[in-house]
Amino acid sequence: MITKFYNLFINIYGFAMKVASLWNPKAKQWKDGRKGFFEKLSKTLENLPNGNPTIWMHCASLGEFEQGRPLLEKIKARHPQAKIILTFFSPSGYEIRKGYKGVNLVCYLPLDTASNAATFVNYINPTLVLWVKYEFWLHYLQELKRKDIPVLLISGLLQNENAFYKLYRKRLLACFTHFFVQTEASAQKLAAIGFSENVTVSGDTRFDRVIEIAEAFEHIPAVAKFCSGHKVLVAGSTWTEDEEELTHYVRVNPDIRFIIAPHEVDEENIKDLQKEFPRSVLFSALQSKPFHNEAVKAFDALAGSAQPNEVINTLIIDNIGMLSRLYKYADITYVGGGFGESGLHNILEAAVYGKPVFFGPVYQKHFEAIELEDAGGAISIENALELEARLKELWENENLLKEKGEAAKQYVYASAGATGYIMDYIYKNRLLTN
Q1: What is the end-to-end Cα distance of the chain in Å, rounded?
Q2: Rounded to whole angstroms, what are the CA distances from 388 to 105, 165, 358, 391?
Q3: Which of 118, 211, 217, 389 could serve as a FRET partner for 323 with CA atoms 20 to 30 Å apart?
Q4: Cα separation, 214 vs 212, whole angstroms
Q5: Does domain 218-414 bear CATH number 3.40.50.2000?
Q6: For residues 365 and 18, what is the distance between their CA atoms, to the nearest angstrom?
Q7: CA triplet 394, 398, 400: central angle to 5 degrees?
Q8: Strand pairing partners for 289?
Q9: How far apart are CA 6 and CA 203, in angstroms?
Q10: What is the mean pLDDT of residues 50-54?
C-alpha cells in the first residue's frame, strides 16, 4: 500500500513537471534533459573506458555537489582509473556542472520509478554509491540494496519530517550501508528510529571544500580594481528580500564599494537590480570597458541606468560561478536567503576568508550559522535598521571587525575533516575493491 501511494506521488510529480514545462524554463530543462534518456545513456556508456571501480554520486543540485566534490576528487586522485558517474535531479545543478571534467559522465537522474531504477542501476553497475545530504529516492535505494551495492550517505542532515516521508522512511533508510551525518541531532534522530550502529557524526564536507577553494584562490583583476582603496561589502546569493534590506544603505554610502551577486541571474532580475541600485555597473560591462577607481562619469555609456555625473559604487554580478572568490575582496560579507523560504545560502564560502558574515533571521535549520554566530563570526539581523547599525559598529571599530573575521576563519578550519572520515571508512571496509 505504501509503495502504491509513493508511485502515485511520483507519477503525479512527473506529470506536473511536464505541464509546468509549457511555461517554466527550469521545468522544461528538467523534462528535456530526460527525453530519450536511456538511449542516450547506452550510447554514452559504450564510449567510456571500462574503469574499475565505478563510483556513482547523486546530488539534488549544485549545493549538494559542492558538498560531495571534495570526496569525489579524493577518490579520483587515488583511483585515476575509476569510472565516476555524477547525477543531478535539478536543472540548476546539471546545467552548471554538465561540463565538469572531474568525472566520466554527468547526467540527470531519471524519475524514480521501479523500472527506471532497475534499468539505470543495471546500466551503470556501480561498485560504490555516494548519496549527498538528504535527497532520498525509494526505488533507486531499494534496487541498490537488492543488488547488495554499498550506499553511503555523506554530509547527511535529517530535518523535521513531513507526514509523507514518515510513511516510508524506515524502508528507505534501511537501504544505506552507512550514514555520515553533519550533526549530533541527525545522529539522534536516526538512533530514535533504530539506526545507530552504522552512523558516524563526521561533520560537513563543505568545510573541506571551502578551504580548498580559498587556498587555491585566483584573483579577478576587474573586481580587484573596482574595490581598490575602498571599504567593501560583498552580498552573495541574494534574493529580493535581502536586496530590500540593503537598498537604503547602499544609496547613502557612496564611498563604500558594494558587490551584489544575486541568486538568480536571469535578464529580468538583473534589470530589476539595476533599477534598485542605480549607481551600479554590471560585471559583464566592467570586463569589457576601462574602469577607474575614481568617480566614473557618463554612466549611461556603461550600463544605461544612472544619471550622468553619479559615482558608481555597486558592482552587480551577472554570471554564476564567481561568488566563492568574490568574498575574498570583502571587509564584511552578507549572505542571502535568511529573509525568506528559500533558506540561508552557503555562509562558509565567506567565513573561510576571515570575513564577518551577516544574514537574515531565518537560519535555525542551518547548524553552521548557529555555531558561527556563537563563535562570534556571524551576525543575524532582523531588518534594515539593525543591519545599518551593526555595520556602522564594525566600520568604526577596526579591532572588532578583525576579531569577528578571525573568529569566522577559525571556526571553518576547526570544523574541517569530514572527507577524511569518509575516506578512512571506504578503505577500511574495502568498498572500492569489492
Answers
A1: 35
A2: 47, 42, 11, 5
A3: 389
A4: 6
A5: yes
A6: 31
A7: 60
A8: none
A9: 31
A10: 82
